Amino acid sequence: MLKYWRLWILIITLIGALLAIFLKPQYTGVEIAYIHSDSPAKGVLQQGFIISEINGQKIQNVDKWEELKDNLKGDVSITVYEGREKKTYKFFVNNSLGIDVIDIDRTNLNFGLDIKGGTRIILSPKENVSKENVDEIIATLQTRINTYGLREVNLIPVRSMDGNYYIQIEAAGIGRDIVENLLSKQGKFEAKVSKPVFLKDNKGIFQLKDSYPIELLQNDSVKINDMIIDINQTFSLEDIEFQYLNRSGNELIFLGLAYRGEDIELVYSDPQHSGLIPYKDFYRFYFVVLVSEKGAERFARITSGIPSQIDMQTGQEYLKDSRILLFLDDQLVSDLRIASELGGKIYTTPQVEGSRETKELALEEKLRLQSILRSGSLPVSLETVSVSVISPTLGQGFILSAFYAGIFAAIAVVIIVFIRYRNIKTTIPMIFMTISEVIIIVGISSSGDSMIWACVLILNMFLVATAWWKKEEIDISAWLGAFLIPLLGLLSWTIDLPAIGGIIAAIGTGIDHLVIITDESLAGKKEEILYGLKDKIKRAFFIIFGAAATTIAAMVPMMFIGIGLVKGFAITTTVGVLIGVLVTRPAYAVIVKRMGEKKD
Q: Most buried among 140, 285, 555, 576, by the most CB within 10 A?
């Protein structure tokens, strides 16, 4: 049995691919795709929850949901799966439940918008914009999307009849919460430092690069540099914008603008400068940003002259009554104390911090802030005009049609191959190899399968090591396939029309390669005089590897510089070719060699 170790590698990889596709908890119900803002379930249920029952009635699919939802009034009981935990919630419904759903994925495959469907969102600029402004908005949003790790998102500029511009977003499985918290945010970043000024006999010194006498007047107004400033009034001093916040006893508190969005030069995401830390009942996240020299100089001026004090709980020394406040779209996201050694110093690496109840929420908020800060602010703010769940353009009908087309194509290939070789024993292995290749490609594209492919890798390595120990035939390509293909299983991508096109291209390439191996191996008697069976297979593989290398060389640039259709096609085609030359072709060569030995 160990003699056919290359065939066993194929079988192990094939089983791993099937498990990667289908090994998933199965629920009966529908998946929440979007919860409207006026829904009574807003803030209670979440996108991704599985609704299994309404008022005790089982929900098998979207059709059953549509049948029941319009008649829901008054007290409504909804049973959902939150992960694997089943819970029941009760809501009072006036007009509509306000929940849109989709059918549950029964596999671990990520289908694209053209197959699965998704959400269509229309955003409108709050001001009049030009085509150049819209292009800038889309470029910024695309950066946020890429940083956040969203998949299958299409951004389309739309112009109405009256000349107004809109941004249409189409995405598979994206909800309003992402739109409100990430895409529709203008992203205006400001870092402000609270600056205390201590008075004696209603007079003090406002210290920046220079010193400015300050005097407390009636009604808590202050006079500084010949300016009369009231509480909450803003003013400018040394090209720094300040706000007079309040007075507490003999202490005045001002807020100085140290950093703006344009001052951010780099947002760190490496483990040395960012991370998550569990703390009591919540998780704290942090990451560092690199700011410009001008922003750092403003920070140094604002913090000049502030005395330090020791925190009795931690023993650390901080600037007294001074904090750095980080705002995003005028909302406070971080409130940090300032170490005493930073007072009056040029500080170019402020740290953004925050916390959330769970690790997942903390990571999501960290990614959201990093993506917005890295992308910069939008030229104008946006508002959500509409959000609607769209049905797939091809959907179930396309999958069924593709299945039928695949069956007919397979039958056609079987007939042609059988006519060519007039031997069913030659035809069946070729069809098996082609089907195996498709399954492995699809299995590698699935998500949440790292443990499965890790097990495949361990089994493959054990099999290769045993074959080497027993001094079986050495095959470098099969060794590389046993190691590389399970590692590719850690990837995942969207199965959409371009990906299906890539699978078809890989199948076509695979059939060509199998025919080459078969023709070279089962050649006539004149060929047998010149070449042995082993030499024929080597000659066939030389041709195959040359063709595969050419295909991969053409696809690799498309993966890195291509977008949309080109990128998805290139990834799937490349993976398919690698599976072919490193797993299925070596296994098929074993079968052909065995057939040739029996023929002799």
A: 576
How would you label 53-88 residue by residue, b for 16+ Cβ within 10 Å and e otherwise?
A: bbeeeebeebeebeeebeebeeebebbbbeeeeeee
Q: Is 203 exposed, middle or buried (0-12, 13-18, 19+ CB in 10 A)?
A: exposed
Whether domain 2-23+395-599 has CATH 1.10.630.10: the reply is no
Main-chain phi, psi angles of 149, to 5 degrees:
85, 20
CATH 2.30.42.10 domain position(s) in the chain: 30-104
Q: Which amino acid is at 500?
A: I
Q: Which CATH class is domain 118-186+380-390?
A: alpha beta
Q: Residue 109 phi/psi, 5° resolution?
A: -85, 145
Phi-psi region of 528 (alpha: psi -120 to 50; beta: other; left: phi over 0): alpha
pLDDT, tens only, 218-252: 888 999 988 999 999 999 999 899 999 998 888 99
Pairing of strands 308-310, 317-328: antiparallel
Strongest mean pLDDT among 59-63, 130-134, 302-306, 322-326? 302-306
Tell which residue, 134, 180, 173, has the closest CA to residue 150.
Answer: 173
pLDDT tens digits for 536-556? 556 656 666 766 777 778 777
Selection from 477, 468, 484, 581 nearest residue 2 by Cα: 468
CA distance 259 to 264: 8
Closest by CA position to 580, among listed 531, 515, 520: 515
CATH class name, domain 30-104? mainly beta
Query: Which pLDDT band holds residue 151 (cuts at 50, 70, 90)?
Result: low
Three-state DSSP state, 574: helix
User: Start-end ranges of CATH 1.20.1640.10 in the chain?
Assistant: 2-23+395-599
Q: Helix, strand, coil shares of the chain as percentages rounded to 5?
A: 45, 30, 25
CA distance 254 to 242: 7
Rounded to whole angstroms, what are the CA distances from 175 to 1, 51, 121, 158, 599? 53, 16, 9, 21, 62
